[in-house]
Amino acid sequence: MKPEEFYQALAAKGIELSDTQKKQFEIYFHELVETNKVMNLTTIIEEDQVYLKHFYDSLVLDFVDEKLLTEELTLCDVGSGAGFPSIPLKIVNPKLKITIVDSLNKRIKFLDGLVNKLGLDDVTLVHGRAEEVGKNKLYREQFDIVTARAVAALNILTELCLPLSKVDGTFIAMKSEKAPEELEHATYSIQVLGGKVSDQKSFELPNNEGIRNFIFIDKVKNTPGKYPRKPGTPAKKPLV
Ligand code: SAM
User: Fold this and answer.
1) Distance (Å) from CA 117 to ligand 1 centroid
2) 34 pLDDT higher than 90
3) Which residues contact 112 (CB under 8 A, 6 or more apart)?
4) For residue 40, pLDDT beyond 90
5) Model ipTM?
6) Do residues 234 and 212 touch, judged by C-beta distance below 8 A?
7) Cα dist. 9→26, 207, 224 in Å?
8) Which domains does the chain show, CATH number per domain?
9) Cα of 19 to ligand 1 centre, how many Å?
10) Which residues participate in S-adenosyl-L-methionine binding (predicted)?
């Protein structure tokens, strides 16, 4: 997907990018590829692949949940890596207030430089493990939306993400074809952590690049204080 095709594909979904926003994606691509020469950020570096598999793929969230496009929501992106999905979402809707949590400080430093170059406001970068950040009252149960793409299996991810969602907020897990299987194994953890599956949506990426599945988990009650457990425990002993 060349940049022009990216703009057209978004326009077909009702998202008309301004020249400033197009330039921001250009800068993002440039920074990602240049920094990747000295720091491992992504294996996807071809322009048409970055536009499709990182930028467009992140923005599919806007197609499945339109309030992300227009509303002034607080959003926490857990394990954002080089900024996906939250930085593309923020470029498209500058009103979003985003917080990015990642345990690798070099990625947080990359994002710090990127956010400055893109001139984005209301972006908070947190270096830390979600297990610890989810215990910190500055972040615990503070967000309207929590997202995670390519971070962990759903039964682990729920323990990293649901503690950050406010009651009445939503954790949206971005998953591949294996979503139904992952959901089956996460039923218990979702319930224990105060969540309830409210919706599931699928979206087919262009150029036969596969299916994206979105699992919407509403936070219906507070997460018990003992969760998240200490760093590493959710992955070693997922709640089942
Ligand atoms: N979401 C990005 C994407 O889709 O391209 C990055 C995915 S990358 C495979 C996973 C990221 O999650 C890494 O940057 C890693 O440092 C971070 N991560 C993994 N476990 C984490 C945890 N417990 N807390 C915070 N970040 C974590």
Assistant:
1) 22
2) yes
3) 125
4) yes
5) 0.99
6) no
7) 16, 12, 43
8) 70-236 (3.40.50.150)
9) 31
10) 79, 84, 130-131, 149
